[in-house]
Design a protein that fits this description.
By secondary structure, the protein is α/β, with parallel strands linked by helices. The protein contains twelve helices and ten strands. The protein has a six-stranded mixed beta sheet with strand order 1-4-9-7-6-5. α10 runs antiparallel to α11 and α10 packs parallel to α12.
């Protein structure tokens, strides 16, 4: 077992790439040749809210990662929404009926007949020491009652299979005071592409989930653990990801809290998705200000970019109050403008 312990995702990506280059073994996979580590890897991210990847080499689409995190919390599995950020997403990962078979959020909230997030929150609010709060994504139960992940022929099935929640006492902060209880999240992954998955989309999706759950429980975020059984990088991508590339993180950029009023978060998510689906409907004033101050200008900015209105896209990106996301959107647009 390898352990990569880092402050945030910007530190994790070069560390993971370097480890693959040093100790990875070349293997032929169904998706092409890859460097694969011979043992599982656990990545410990100390500050998971620092989830924005400032890497021109990785060139992550910030709009897609941010929106998909909310799409997941909404319990969605339609690919039409995601096609507005990546045009061929549905062709690559959607089934003929227009759904993404392995959609995490749908499995968190609906697929098993109840809301796993609600149940996990309830357990840990009643008893912080509870060790039974497990959220499941993988489902081998045969159709029609289950998802038939093990045997079915799907374009997409969950790479991340289940999540463990743990409440513990937080460390002492820089003032010497205890920060109280925190929520750690451990994600188990059967197969993890270090560049596109582990330190790309997954670092955003699961840290947002962690922040959502912690807010609803009424505690702070702790550490994020990613346990990758098959830790790999495809050679076609690795050739573009040199170990010596700079993955810049401005540590003075403090992430803004997303869910200030957790009892109203699900209502805000539902209202946001309704407006997103029906573009004639104006976005309301949400109870959680993060939606109006960050999510709405981010989505409108990306829509302007897709409509080839670069000046409007940059202007809206500048209005995103969260500095980390504002920088990421602006730099992503400017790279494309060149």
């Amino acid at each position: 077992m390898y352990v990569i312990k880092v402050r945030n995702v910007c530190d994790a990506l070069p560390a993971g790439v370097a480890l693959l280059r040093e100790q990875g073994v070349e293997e032929e996979t169904r998706a092409g040749k890859a460097l694969v580590l011979p043992y599982p890897v656990t990545t410990v991210i100390e500050q998971p809210a620092e989830r924005v990847l400032f890497s021109a080499e990785r060139d992550a689409n910030p709009a897609f990662h941010l929106f998909e995190s909310i799409w997941m919390l909404a319990g969605r599995n339609d690919v039409a929404s995601l096609n507005r950020f990546i045009r061929d997403f549905g062709d690559r990962f959607g089934e003929p009926n227009g759904v993404m078979h392995g959609a995490y959020g749908h499995r968190w909230r609906e697929a098993f007949g109840f809301d796993q997030l609600d149940e996990a929150v309830d357990k840990l609010k009643r008893d912080h020491t509870n060790r039974q709060a497990v959220i499941q994504m993988w489902d081998c139960t045969p159709k029609p009652s289950g998802s038939d992940d093990l045997r079915g022929n799907w374009k997409d099935r969950p790479c991340n299979t289940h999540i463990y929640l743990r409440v513990r006492k937080g460390e002492v902060d820089h003032t010497g005071d205890s920060i109280g209880l925190v929520l750690d999240l451990t994600i188990c992954c059967r197969s993890n592409d270090v560049i596109w998955g582990a330190y790309g989309a997954n670092a955003v999706h699961f840290s947002v989930l962690q922040e959502y759950l912690a807010a609803r429980i009424g505690i702070q975020m702790g550490k994020l653990y990613q346990v990758s059984n098959n830790f790999h990088g495809y050679l076609t991508t690795m050739d573009k990801e040199g170990v010596d590339n700079r993955y810049f993180m401005d540590y003075s950029v403090t992430p803004l809290p997303m869910f200030r009023y957790p009892d109203h978060v699900d209502d805000d998510i539902a209202d946001f998705m309704n407006c997103f689906d029906n573009q004639e409907v104006a976005y309301p004033k949400f109870l959680n200000p993060w939606f109006n101050e960050n999510l709405v200008p981010a989505v409108l900015s990306y829509q302007a970019f897709r409509d080839k209105r670069l000046a409007d896209a940059l202007s809206l990106a500048a209005k995103i109050r969260a500095t980390d996301w504002s920088i990421a959107f602006t730099e992503w647009y400017l790279r494309r403008a060149k």
